[in-house]
Amino acid sequence: MAKALKTTFVCQSCGAESLRWAGKCPACGDWNTLLEESQAIAPPGSGFAPSVKGRVVALETLKGENNETPRFQTGLVELDRVTGGGIVPGSALLIGGEPGIGKSTLLLQLAASLANRGKRTIYFSGEEAAAQVRLRAERLGLSDAPVALGCETNLASILTTLSDDKPADLIVIDSIQTLWSEAIESAPGTVSQVRAAAQALIRHAKRVGSALLLVGHVTKEGQIAGPKVIEHMVDTVLYFEGDRGHTYRILRAVKNRFGATDEIGVFEMASGGLREVTNPSELFLGDRDASSPGAAVFAGIEGTRPLLVEIQALVAPSGLGTPRRAVVGWDSNRLSMLLAVLETRAGVSFSGHDVYLNVAGGLKLTEPAVDLAAAAALVSSLSGVAIPRHQVHFGEVSLSGAVRAIPLMSARLKEAQKLGFRCALMPAQGDLEQGSSKLKLQRVCHLRELADESMSCD
Other CB atoms closer than 10 Å to residue 59's CB: what's the count? Predict the structure, then answer.
């Protein structure tokens, strides 16, 4: 008896299933995302569905010996930092980023670095031909690296190739959205195809102990395309970020079962490929013009790494009925809240002025501690008084105008001192490690104090 076909409609945004087609997904609300997919099912009593009896699982206690997770170094210090000290054999990593940001370049450099260290690496490209990958390797000076290259999108062929020889140390799939399985009647890149391909590859990697690195396309909102379950299946999720107008790139970990999340690695795109940046604070502050009003230096934390970046503000008279508010690299809602606090609690009015705020270098900041630096840049631009060059800021601003304490203040001060800063405007509350910094500390209790000349280091 032949198997019957079960037809369902699957949302390509969230993966929700529906028995009937609809213009709008009932789960996520997106329009025109339901596509028909067919699955073979065995009729009752046909003999195609074997009855499998489960086994008793041995239960253990939480107490026991924990061996340190084995890792192998990649040769890229910034990548090792983001992954928590190196790649764990048998782990699955997912990396996403905008088109043309440098994902394939980074992975080719990673594969070549491991291959030159004696590791067996296999690079499957589903988007480019072998000649295109060779041209990139020649441009990067990696043609002599013993990387095994394959251009294939058929999932069965890839799994057969991986099982034909000894297990590889690293498997790169560029990208997961290009793979397809004959067992699923849908186009490559659909939810069913992506989910099935990722599950099969991860199962193979866990079984043989190979590290698996998957490349994922991103949507226009910047999220990895496909079902969200893919991010739950893998051990590490990395985002490769950057601005087309700048040469640097940020590799950020948003999930890591073997290390810290929100850790970042900084690279610079050069003619010879991606170059590691060991001191990103100097990169973001290299072209700073301290004589111009509206520029404040923020001492932030990205993961475990202290990072200094410049916050630029421009407050200009507006001829519009509703002044414009524009922000790049920061939350626009946070800027609106900060302007309201400055006007209500500190008496600094921005009505009748256009406000522009920019994080220098195109870096995206989400830390609440940037509030004080942004407020200082706004007040400086409005008053026309430049902030001293050797002064840094950090602190969270509440709706009452009070400046609240933030974590890791000692680490921020140490980084500022290392780069030659001499003064720090920081929250009045919060403990510091004894002898952690020799900077002159200016404690700020309320946002009103920013307009006071006594808060300057001069």
Answer: 5
Looking up tokens 């009932």, which residue turns up? 26
- 122-136, 177-191, 332-346, range with the lowest pLDDT: 177-191
Does 229 lie in the same domain as 95?
yes
Q: Return d(Cα 353, Cα 13) in angstroms, integer.
A: 40
Q: Which of 249, 266, 361 is nearest to 311 (CA)?
A: 361
Answer whether 126's CB lies under 8 Å from 152's CB.
Answer: yes
* Six-digit token string for 129: 């031909």
| Bridge partner residues of 380 (DSSP) | none
* Residue 324, helix vs strand vs coil: coil
**Cis status of the peptide bond prior to 436, with omega within 30 of 0:** no
Residue pair 339/333 in contact (Cβ under 8 Å)? The answer is: no
User: 239, 261, 278: which is the final residue of a domain?
Assistant: 278
Do 290 and 417 lie in a common domain?
yes
**pLDDT at 454 (0 to 100):** 41
Q: Which of 70, 137, 90, 92 is nearest to 110 (CA)?
A: 137
Residue-number span of the structural domain to which 110 is assigned: 77-278
pTM listed for this prediction: 0.74
The verdict on 265 and 287 lying in the same domain is no
In the chain, the number of structural domains is: 3
Confidence of residue 457 (pLDDT cuts 50, 70, 90): low
Whether 265 is in a domain gets the answer yes
Query: Is beta strand 121-125 parallel, antiparallel or unpaired with respect to 170-174?
Result: parallel
Does one domain contain both 34 and 177?
no
State how far the Cα of 202 lies from the Cα of 218, in Å rounded to an integer: 20
Residues 19 and 105 in one domain: no
Closest CA to 382 of 330, 448, 332, 316: 316
Within-domain flag for 62: no
- pLDDT digit string (tens) for 217-232? 887 766 777 667 788 8
Name the DSSP letter for residue 416. Answer: H
- Nearest-angstrom CA–CA distance, 3 and 23: 30
**Half-sphere exposure at residue 425, Cβ-oriented, CA atoms within 13 angstroms:** 36
